[in-house]
């Protein structure tokens, strides 16, 4: 099981974002916390879903997050390219936030197209790195016990999950059964010489190893 | 969205039942009463000793046990040493689907057979799967055609028609997740 990009987009909509509204609103108490109060001209933090909705009906201006500008993204891209490991991303859901904001308020983001391209570049770099490390992970003779996956965002993990977890699980299953069968065979060989009272035990092991 | 569960057979799992129907060459050790139908050429009701015949794997498994030995089981041709050597040499190019559509699962069952080489069959399975999955690792990125032998690293990709059922399942699940990402990136946001 793995989350789909759509479900991740839903999660990303809970991320806070700054807006400047052009109307008055009293404090609103929701299950996830209080929102507002909103006053015209004063920046306020609201969840992304609300910001997108308000800006669609032209009731607010969204202030894009600090990292959504060419300088910062260029630096991140550079770091990502030069580092063998994954680097820290400014936002857990950077792809989804980017996608929502590009659609909701392309005018508010400076150099929108360039920002878009840079974010896609960063994603591609990270994705290529991810695939490379998965291949490396599978290349090792003895499967290692750990892999360093710091700073992976949810979207990246969910992308690789069906392949990586299923693969490792099947390899593990085959290995386990092979060693179980070996143990059972050895035991049955011992048994034929000593005729010990472990028949039931060895049989139960064999039937286990068939599964 | 369901991206599928990993394959983990239970008692009623159909792929597992199919996998245990592989034919195993056997030789009878004792006369088998009422088993003459296995060899119509004999035209007798009972099957005499020392006759070569074929039994499904699930039957061969119980009938060839060391303490109740009715038949001597041989490995099916595809799991014999020469084929195993070919698999060891280059697992990536072998057409497993043609050899045995449930190669790994049948192999697992075979590894519990009372046969001197059974352990070795079980032992090569994880290695073969690991190497083949590695060449599959980026195949699923190409929706229509898979990577060919002449890609960047010279590592031969895995052909979809060469995958056995287990590999195919992993392949399909991986492809699905990649496709869902592509369609999400293209589509405008829902809110």
UniProtKB/TrEMBL annotation, chain A:
InterPro entries recorded: GINS_A (IPR021151), GINS_Psf2 (IPR007257), PSF2_N (IPR056784)
Q: Which residues form the GINS subunit domain?
A: 67-157
Q: Does the keyword Cell cycle apply?
A: no
**Where does the DNA replication complex GINS protein PSF2 N-terminal domain start and stop, copy by copy?**
4-63
Q: Where is the composition biased (Low complexity)?
A: 196-211
Major location category of this protein: nucleus
Q: Where is this region: Disordered?
A: 183-211
User: What cellular component terms from Gene Ontology apply here?
Assistant: CMG complex; GINS complex
Top-level taxonomic group = Eukaryota
Q: Name one GO biological process term.
A: DNA replication
Q: Where in the cell is it found?
A: Nucleus
Write the record's keywords in alphabetical order, separated by commas.
Answer: DNA replication, Nucleus
UniProt feature, compositional bias: Polar residues: 183-195
Summarize subunit and interaction data from the UniProt record for this chain.
Component of the GINS complex.
Q: Which family does it belong to?
A: Belongs to the GINS2/PSF2 family.
Its recorded name reads: DNA replication complex GINS protein PSF2
Organism of derivation: Allacma fusca
Q: What is the lineage of its organism?
A: Eukaryota, Metazoa, Ecdysozoa, Arthropoda, Hexapoda
TrEMBL record, chain B:
Family annotation (Pfam families)? PSF3_N, Sld5
Location(s) in or outside the cell: Nucleus
The domain of life for this entry's organism is: Eukaryota
Signal peptide limits: none
For the keyword Nucleus, the answer is yes
GO annotations under biological process?
mitotic DNA replication initiation
Residues covered by the DNA replication complex GINS protein PSF3 N-terminal domain? 12-63
The record's CDD domains line, in alphabetical order, gives: GINS_A_psf3 (cd11713), GINS_B_Psf3 (cd21693)
Question: What residues does the GINS subunit domain cover?
Answer: 79-185
Record's keyword terms, sorted: DNA replication, Nucleus
Q: Name one GO cellular component term.
A: GINS complex
Is Nucleus tagged as a keyword? yes
Quaternary data: Component of the GINS complex.
Chain's role: The GINS complex plays an essential role in the initiation of DNA replication. Required for correct functioning of the GINS complex, a complex that plays an essential role in the initiation of DNA replication, and progression of DNA replication forks. GINS complex is a core component of CDC45-MCM-GINS (CMG) helicase, the molecular machine that unwinds template DNA during replication, and around which the replisome is built.
Protein family according to the UniProt entry: Belongs to the GINS3/PSF3 family.
Q: What is this protein called?
A: DNA replication complex GINS protein PSF3
The scientific name of the source species is Allacma fusca
């Amino acid at each position: 099981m793995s989350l789909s990009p759509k479900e991740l987009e839903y999660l990303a909509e809970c991320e806070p974002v700054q807006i400047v509204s052009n109307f008055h609103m009293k404090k609103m108490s929701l299950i996830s916390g209080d929102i507002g109060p909103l006053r015209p001209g004063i920046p306020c933090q609201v969840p992304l879903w609300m910001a997108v909705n308000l800006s669609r009906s032209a009731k607010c201006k969204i202030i894009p997050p600090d990292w959504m500008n060419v300088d910062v993204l260029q630096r991140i891209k550079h770091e990502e390219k030069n580092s063998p490991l994954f680097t820290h991303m400014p936002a857990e859901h950077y792809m989804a936030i980017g996608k929502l904001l590009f659609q909701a308020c392309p005018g508010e983001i400076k150099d929108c197209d360039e920002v878009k391209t840079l974010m896609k570049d960063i994603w591609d770099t990270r994705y290529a790195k991810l695939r490379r490390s998965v291949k490396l992970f599978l290349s090792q003779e003895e499967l290692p016990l750990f892999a360093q996956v710091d700073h992976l965002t949810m979207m990246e993990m969910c992308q690789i999950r069906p392949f990586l977890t299923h693969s490792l699980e099947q390899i593990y299953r085959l290995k386990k059964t092979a060693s179980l069968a070996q143990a059972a065979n050895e035991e049955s060989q011992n048994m034929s010489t000593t005729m010990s009272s472990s028949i039931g035990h060895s049989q139960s092991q064999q039937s286990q190893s068939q599964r | 969205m369901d991206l599928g569960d990993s394959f983990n057979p239970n008692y009623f799992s159909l792929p597992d039942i199919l996998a245990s129907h592989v034919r195993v060459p056997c030789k009878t050790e004792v006369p088998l009463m009422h088993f003459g139908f296995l060899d119509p050429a004999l035209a007798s009701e009972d099957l005499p000793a020392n006759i070569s015949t074929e039994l499904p794997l699930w039957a061969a498994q119980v009938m060839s046990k060391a303490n109740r030995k009715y038949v001597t089981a041989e490995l099916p041709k595809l799991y014999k040493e020469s084929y195993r050597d070919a698999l060891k040499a280059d697992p990536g190019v072998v057409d497993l689907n043609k050899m045995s559509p449930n190669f790994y699962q049948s192999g697992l069952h075979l590894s519990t057979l009372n046969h001197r080489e059974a352990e070795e069959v079980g032992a090569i399975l994880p290695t073969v799967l690991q190497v083949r999955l590695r060449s599959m690792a980026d195949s699923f990125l190409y929706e229509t055609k898979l990577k060919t032998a002449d890609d960047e690293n010279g590592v031969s990709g895995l052909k979809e028609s060469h995958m056995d059922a287990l590999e195919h399942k992993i392949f399909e699940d991986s492809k699905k997740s990649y496709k869902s990402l592509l369609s999400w990136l293209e589509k405008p946001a829902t809110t």
